[in-house]
Specification:
Structural class: alpha/beta
Number of helices: 10
Strand content: 25-35%
Enzyme class: transferase
Catalytic activity: guanosine(1835) in 23S rRNA + S-adenosyl-L-methionine = N(2)-methylguanosine(1835) in 23S rRNA + S-adenosyl-L-homocysteine + H(+)
Protein name: Ribosomal RNA large subunit methyltransferase G
Largest sheet: 7 strands, mixed
CATH architecture of the largest domain: 3-Layer(aba) Sandwich
Order of helices and strands: EEHEHEHEEHEHEEEEHEHEHEEEEHEHEE
Distance between the termini: 36 Å
CATH superfamily of the largest domain: Vaccinia Virus protein VP39
Radius of gyration: 22 Å
Helix content: 25-40%
Function: Specifically methylates the guanine in position 1835 (m2G1835) of 23S rRNA.
Subcellular location: Cytoplasm
Strand order of the largest sheet: 5-4-3-6-7-9-8
Amino acid sequence: MPTLDTPFASLDLLRQPHQPNEPLQAFDAADEYLLNHLHEQGIQADTRVLLLNDSFGALACSLASHCQVTSSSDSHLGFLALTRNLASNGLSADAVDFVPASSSAQGPFDWVLIRVPKTLALLEEQLIRLHGQLAPGARVVAGAMVKHLPRAAGDLLEKYLGPVQASLAVKKARLLQVSVADKGAASSPYPTRYRLDTPALELVNHANLFCREGLDIGTRAFLPHLPQHVDARRVADLGCGNGVLGIAYALNNPQAELTLVDESYMAVQSAQENWRAALGERPAIIRAGDGLAEQPADSLDLVLCNPPFHQQQVVGDFLAWRMFQQARAALVTGGELWIVGNRHLGYHAKLKRLFRGVEQVAATPKFVVLKASK
């Protein structure tokens, strides 16, 4: 297991979800750079530190015994990693106050350490929310690996907080140090909204949503081919995003019982608002989760999924494969997993390793809609 050594602690840290022979670390040089910088500046036990987008808890676990730590991110998997890494390093679960990105952390904070997220709209929303949450003399530092640090991130820091000074690169990581100025409150451009004609919906999309400005082309290819049933099927929209697949299915299947789950808190927030707008008080379970890991075995008749092919900046089919495994475990015998995916990803062959039968329902030049039967 990789060890993170900094002046604050020596920690063994795991990513979430964990996979055997994990090729990637739960921390990188940007985490080390931020922690070393903070140590050089000096903190006390009563120093209030806000961490934004601490992927797997490397920053929070390092600081948990040294100051008052609040951590906020949009990843439920990140929260699970934080919880697990606190426990495995002998740290108390309540040593860190975790706030989902769908809520606002309450200051005042003396320090804010930011891991620059892949989605700059999330960073923008987080910076807007910092107004009124910084203590006098508060210091704000953002860090990232140079290859993942767009110029626009510094522009956002300067727009909402104050002048930015970029550090020298260390181990291919860089810090952006902010001289906090009184910029005044800013109006957030989030959530955004867009309309669909079929089904007729207006969809709310909070800042960290994938394809926030319009329906993604994979889902667009999937929607006309959603199955229709007259009975009370138990259905999950796995990786639900703004909830459009689950909502569209529910509108055409009035007896169905829906569960919508996503690892993004802002996705869940969006899906909850969109469900209420489209279906009123019709019952549904809409929650943040590690996919269907918490779903009882043999408890679903149908799973709908437009699987992701990346986790933060890491591209691959690991999460999709895990979702397929979770769906198989949660489905009853004879239950079905319906997915849409890029042709080149070869999901047909992967699903055949798990399911009794796999057939192509529809296809476009870029996407295929597949049905896998347990």
